[in-house]
Specification:
By secondary structure, the chain is α/β, with parallel strands linked by helices. The protein is 36% helix and 23% strand. The protein has 10 helices and 11 strands. The protein has a 6-stranded mixed β-sheet. α1 links the parallel β1 and β2. The two termini are 15 Å apart.
Length: 245
C-alpha cells in the first residue's frame, strides 16, 4: 500500500490500549516502510486509574498524536474535547475469551452452564480492569447468578494482562479480550465465552486535539482501517470491520 511521500519524515506519537496492541505492532513496520514516518509507540489501558491509562496521559498533556482504544472510552474523551471532532475511525471488534495455564485441564465453556461451572470450580479467577473486566464485574457475574459465590476468589487485575497472571500461576482461570490473551506465552486459550453472554468491544482510533502532525495521523488511521490489512488484524484475534475480499 503506497501512502505517498511527504517532504519530511514525521515522528508520530501513538498510544494504543492492549486490545489492539498486537495488531498495531504487526502493522507498524509496513506503515513505516510505506510512509517514511517513524512511529513512537506507547501503551496504556483505555480506562482505569493507572498512570499509563490513556485518559491520564492526555490529562497530563503528554505529546500524543493518535490514540487507539476502546470505542466507548474514546467517545468520552471526544465529548470532553480532548480529541479532534470527526476523526474517529472504527478499526475492529474484540470478543472475550478465557484461558488456563499451559497444559492445565481445559473446561468446556461452550455453553452458559459450562462457563458458570468453570468460574465456580476455579480456585482463583482473574479479569481485567478495562472494558472486558468491567463487563465481567458489573454484568456477567450477575447474568450467571454467581456474584456472591465469586467474592474472595475473583480479582480484577490493574494494568497487567490477565494472561500473564495465569501464566505465572497467580490465577487458575481468567477472561479477557481474545486479542489480549493471544500474545501471552504460557497459557492455553479455552475459547470464547458463549454468544448469549458475549460482549464484543469496539476498538477505534482518533486524532488528539492539537496534534502537530494531523496529516500523518490521519494517514496512519486510514492505513490501519484499510481492507488490505483486515487479515493481519484478524490474525491477532480481533474481528476486522473491513473486508479484505
Amino acid at each position: 500500500m503506497t501512502l505517498g511521500a511527504r517532504a519530511h519524515a514525521t515522528d508520530l506519537h501513538v498510544v494504543s490500549s492492549g486490545g489492539f496492541a498486537q495488531a498495531y505492532k504487526d502493522l507498524s513496520g509496513p506503515y513505516e516502510r510505506a510512509s517514511g514516518d517513524h512511529l513512537v509507540s506507547e501503551w496504556g489501558p483505555s480506562m482505569g486509574a493507572t498512570k499509563n491509562a490513556i485518559p491520564a496521559r492526555l490529562a497530563r498533556g503528554e505529546p500524543v498524536d493518535v490514540v487507539i482504544m476502546v470505542g466507548d472510552a474514546l467517545d468520552k474523551l471526544m465529548a470532553e474535547g480532548r480529541l479532534e471532532p470527526g476523526s474517529k475511525v472504527v478499526l475492529a471488534n474484540s470478543p472475550i475469551a478465557c484461558a488456563v495455564r499451559r497444559g492445565a485441564a481445559q473446561p468446556d465453556i461452550g455453553s452458559v452452564d459450562g462457563l458458570r461451572a468453570a468460574l465456580l470450580q476455579a480456585p482463583r479467577v482473574a479479569y481485567s480492569d478495562s472494558a472486558s473486566g468491567e463487563y465481567i464485574k458489573h454484568q456477567l457475574l450477575d447474568k450467571l447468578g454467581i456474584r456472591k459465590q465469586m467474592e474472595g476468589k475473583a480479582a480484577q487485575i490493574p494494568a497487567t494482562p490477565v494472561g500473564e497472571i495465569i501464566a505465572h500461576g497467580d490465577a487458575d482461570f481468567g477472561c479477557q479480550q481474545r486479542s489480549e490473551l493471544k500474545p501471552v506465552k504460557g497459557i492455553d486459550i479455552v475459547g470464547l465465552i458463549p454468544q448469549e453472554v458475549q460482549l464484543k468491544t469496539e476498538y477505534a482510533g482518533a486524532l488528539v486535539r492539537g496534534s502537530r502532525h494531523p496529516q500523518a495521523a490521519r494517514a496512519l488511521l486510514r492505513f490501519l482501517a484499510a481492507p488490505a490489512n483486515a487479515d493481519a488484524i484478524e490474525a491477532t484475534g480481533l474481528e476486522s470491520v473491513a473486508s479484505a475480499h
